[in-house]
Fold this protein.
Amino acid sequence: MQENLVIVESPAKAKTIEKFLGKDFIVKSSFGHIRDLAKKDLGINIGEGYKPVYEIPGDKKKVVDELTKLAKSKTVWLASDEDREGEAIAWHLTEVLGLPVDKTKRIVFHEITKRAILEAIEQPRTVNMDLVNAQQARRILDRLVGFELSPVLWKKVRPSLSAGRVQSVAVRLIVEREREIIAFRSTPYFRVVAQFHAAGDPDKTIFKAELSSRFETREQAEEFLNTCIGATFTVAKAEEKPAQRFPAPPFTTSTLQQEAGRKLGMSVSQTMSVAQHLYEQGLITYMRTDSVNLSKQALAQCKEEITKLYGEKYSSWHNYKTKTKGAQEAHEAIRPSYIENHTIEGTPAEKKLYDLIWKRTVASQMVCAELDRTTVVIDMSGSSQQFVATGEVVRFDGFLRLYSESTDDDQAAESGEGLLPKMTAGDRVVSTQITATERFTQAPARYNEASLVKRLEELGIGRPSTYAPTITTIINRGYVVKQNKDGQKRGYVQLMLTGDKLTSKNLTENFGKEKNRLSPTDIGMVVNDYLETQFKPIMDYNFTANVEKEFDRVADGDITWDTMIHDFYGPFHQMVDTAIGTQTDKKSQARILGNDPKTGHVVKARIGRYGPMVEIEGNEGEKGRFASLKKGQLIESITLEEALELFALPRDLGQLDGEELMVGIGKYGPYVRYGKSFASLAKTDDPYTIGYDRAVEIVRAHQAAAAAANTPLKSFPEDADMLVKNGRYGPYIAYKSKNYRLPKGAKPEELTLDDCLKIVAGSKK
């Protein structure tokens, strides 16, 4: 008989653990939290010391009933995750199942292996209420902020908006970066690179060196190149220094999210979902951690694998220290549960993420890469200008043989470092070609998910476990969009000096291409500005980071959770009252762009009922004209010219079958209108540029679809009213002016009249 009940939070985790425990144990899942703050009203009794009001959701009542029955006759072991969220799940289980919190066995483990599970069984503890209270404090605080801020936004900005403590600050980061980009003005400059070879080199091995200064104008660049004609070049200094490159530490939650984004193109939420699956299958250690520690066992396994693969000279012990204050050093970094398993079975995403974790873990215990770094400074006769050449040679690859960390800077370096010939001060070098290429200063890059996570972590905002839901929330709320941007063409000039001949070329390049970058929407910017005006302390980066530190103090038992909430809520509630009482001028939210040259009326951009739009004001007492902004356009950056182009719709394309053919944008998006009928444009069609032939193609396809919908798939001579038709959402029955859905699995071509009558009769009941 099974005398022990182990409760975990996920079915996959339960299935894995069950394999390691004997016949005396039954393992069940709670499917996450079994209760949460009540959805009705606030769910918090503010007058009773912020006492939370919890309820069991309807979809969890069956689970709770099953666990309650099992718990009555068994010894209960609570085995939820070892973080604050897992501790709270365990506590809620004791409360709902009627288990004594000070006696119920609580077990935690960093990896789902037989050894770890059995060790945990041998050393149970009780629920840590400090960790529970830290989680409660976060949940209560976030509920208070959300419930009190959102109605303010509904009243002062626009209905159906919402706000949150961490996500609003994340939006602020993205908005500020966008404004930096809008304000940025690119300026050209000329970068000079020379090709040299040593005067005494019979092979004339070419190396490149860059001028240490840059020129602002073409004239300055040309003047310098002319001074190079007939000049002699001499090595002023040649330095060669040994250097080391150290391996990156094993993954924490944050660094895994960043590196998976950079190397694998995974979103933060996708990374966490895949990592969760790997953990629950017992393939990796717990994936929510801020520690870079590795256990002695893991270190020994790494050494064994490195020696086996590459030899002992590649193995080195590295003791990494966690920089994050308050990090739990007892925990481990994210690593494979079994280092000897280089690969796994699973989905492509699971295989890729596991491979990344395995390589990072093993590489962290490999020797440093040994490099030679060379710098050569070259003087030019008749000028104070100097050329500088740098080279880097890997003498021993070390950890680079297995793994190299990526960076957030995806701008490719324009000067590649390579091997330089041996040179000493006083050596002459010969220039074969000197080019001055026009370049342009670049605006700050928009955040992608990886760089946003990195910035949030640097500021101490949120925790690694909250980054994925935070990013998902701000995208779902429509405050931020993740988008790709096609590059644009631009011309540039290249001047080239070969011998004593100076030539020039006009070339083109693509610039500004972006992939999966985060941009604020207009409503995101409006909400951010309002919150910054009325709730400046809440939107302050340091304030938000300090709140996280207060949660840590609760977890450490230094302060009580209700004291922390009280200290926050008093000033916050006062700000809410002040904001509600402050008159908001919604007209000030409109941006004046200029005047319409045809009418002289004011043109402005603002948030309308259906989103961002531009308006040409009408005469007094008359309505103005309105047009929606295109995707990628912002109220803050749209120009008068761009705004006026939006009023080109509706466009008259001519006639089709004697009917006017028009293109416009309506409530449901862009369309082609012919007569009284409307056909939606495809996502790839631009209503501002679509031509007559393409519009006709869309109309004909729409007519064909309509005809197909009106042509019955099946009819019955015995009953002319009974028809089986193909509609927008699939086949259906039309009978006496009413429509009936077909049962799942029903094949329309096989239906008899009796079958159809039964479906109709059944639908009426």
Observations:
- Residues 410-416 have pLDDT under 50 and may be disordered.
- The longest strand covers residues 233-245.
- Residues 704 and 710 are 10 Å apart (CA to CA).
